[in-house]
Amino acid sequence: MRHLFAEALALDRSLTPAARCVGHLILHRYINGRTGTAWPSIGRLAKDTNYSDRTVKRAIAKLTEPGGWFILTPQCGRSRSNVYRPHWTKLGAQAEAVAARYFHEAEKVTFPSRKGDILVPKKVTESSPDSLEESKKDSARRRWRRQRPPVEATQRLDGPLGELLEKLRPRTEAKASCTKREEHPSEEG
Fold it and tell me: Do 29 and 73 meet the contact criterion of CB atoms below 8 Å apart?
């Protein structure tokens, strides 16, 4: 019930954004589940919404006007907060708009079999095994290209990292030449 009230409150275009924000905050954070009342102070609402005290007072005035969204019970005296109760009968007037929105969305999703449509399976074409192997090879090549850093980027390093790279480069080139010789021993001699 509280969620329907909050949605109807959000759909009310006569409220300012500050009034909607304050109304939602009272409804969701400060309302007591057993008594259905809330009693946050103006300062607390202003702090939680990041609005000024004057803006919160104007929002509360709009929310608690006769026929408004909340019923205000003023508490007189220092350090005594006003008591707010949701005006549930206001929901009855707005419930049709909320229900229409839900039912309109529900009508969009229908099962084709309920309409009497005949379900036809989509045709699936098989590709030849040769093309599957080729596509696997192509994807492996693309992955290898993404993993390998560009040569220009490694050659432009300056500072200590560049010096370290220069020290390591002859070792890696020597290792690469050794592995080439081991792979093709018949070519050597």
Answer: no
Q: Which residue has tokens 């074409």?
A: 125
Q: Do both 20 and 103 map to the same domain?
A: yes
Does residue 14 sit in the same domain as residue 104? yes
DSSP state for residue 13 in the 8-state scheme:
T
Of the candidates 63, 107, 108, the one whose C-alpha atom is nearest the C-alpha of residue 82 is: 63
Spatial distance between the Cα atoms of 82 and 91, rounded to a whole number of angstroms:
22
37-70 pLDDT, tens digit each: 888 988 999 999 999 999 999 999 999 988 888 8
Q: Where are the beta strands (DSSP E) in the chain?
A: 70-73, 83-86
Residues 104 and 161 in one domain: no
What domain range includes position 74? Answer: 2-108
Asked if residue 17 lies in contact with residue 62, where contact means CB atoms within 8 angstroms, the answer is no
Unique residue bearing structure tokens 């000024």: 52
Domain final residue, candidates 108, 135, 168? 108
